[in-house]
Amino acid sequence: MVGDGSETHSSAARSKSPIKVQDELECALAGKALLNSPRFNKGSAFTAEERDAFQLNGLLPTAIHTLGQQTKRAYEQYLSYEHPIAKNQFLQSLRDQNEVLFYRLILDHLKEMFSIIYTPTEGDAIEQYSHLFRRPEGCFLDVENIDTVDEVVGQWAHPDDIDYIVVTDGEEILGIGDQGVGAIGISTAKLALMTLCAGVCT
């Protein structure tokens, strides 16, 4: 649901996972904030009604596309990259913009893309973490500040919203040795596979 200060709009922009889920997600964002949220952003797939309700007119090209059309275009973009690490980074960028499109694209091409989003290519991305870093993902717990763990976890998410976690200490990642904070990539990669293959919503 999105409030505009005077009324509440029914959330036509509720995010739909490519994996069937029982509940729709309610969205309390509008305008640029909505477009900057990878969980709720649908890009050119927002309908005319949704664009009115969520103050998106003028923030998107006027053409409206289906998820299928978006997926076809994204796959063509994916194929334009030759090196596996470049394909991996394209998919990561897509995930940072539009999670539904990210999962739909990979679900449609899972056999082809498995080695790109997981081993061996994700191992290469983890080794180059500092050079490829765009934005933080996950929750970083500092062993030197163990007393702050409860506070940090509380800032990241409410316990009632968490059903499944993937934890790493950064050691012996994919046979490439200790990777420090870059090992967060193995956790996010495994969570993506859990969503794609087991329907776990992350």
UniProtKB/TrEMBL annotation:
SUPFAM superfamilies: Aminoacid dehydrogenase-like, N-terminal domain. One of its GO terms (molecular function) is malate dehydrogenase (decarboxylating) (NAD+) activity. Residues 95-202 form the Malic enzyme N-terminal domain. The keyword Nucleotide-binding does not apply. Pfam families: malic. Keywords: NAD. The keyword Magnesium does not apply. It comes from the Eukaryota. GO terms for cellular component: cytosol; mitochondrion. PANTHER family: MALIC ENZYME-RELATED, NAD-DEPENDENT MALIC ENZYME, MITOCHONDRIAL. This is NAD-dependent malic enzyme, mitochondrial. It comes from Orbilia oligospora (Nematode-trapping fungus). The lineage of its organism: Eukaryota, Fungi, Dikarya, Ascomycota, Pezizomycotina. The gene is MAE1_2.
